Structure prediction request, 148 residues.
Amino acid sequence: MMLELIGEMILCLVVALLIGFLIGWFFSKALNAEEYDIDYDELSVREDEHSSQIKNLEAKYKKEKEQLSECDKKNRELKGELMKKINLLQNTSNTLQEIQKKHGNNTTERIAELEAMLQQKDIELLEFETVLVKAEETIEKLKAQKDK
Prediction:
């Protein structure tokens, strides 16, 4: 009878030990799962932030590429206009020289007019050259920003 009682007590202690072990094991798993959930949540937030940054950078790149294309187009247009002005200036200069050869110094007033026209064309040519230089500088800046 005493041995039965001792046997039942040992059996109860072993069962209590197993139940305690199982409860502790379940609690540790639950706590670890919460920690992993937090880590996964943080990683998810970081991934979302990185995705939005990449999208913003892609949009910025596309916009800058479009601006560069527009500047290249404008540069070609300005070069064309400059070439037209240069040709016009050369033609005017040639005309002035021909008139000077034909009429000599007798028509000084006409020569003065033509020289004034030539000076005006020179001023226009300088203006177009500055516009062209500015356009090329803008293109170079955009290309340098693109390379960064």
Q: What stands out?
A: Residues 53-148 form one domain. The CA atoms of residues 75 and 93 lie 26 Å apart. The chain has two helices and no strands. The mean pLDDT is 85.
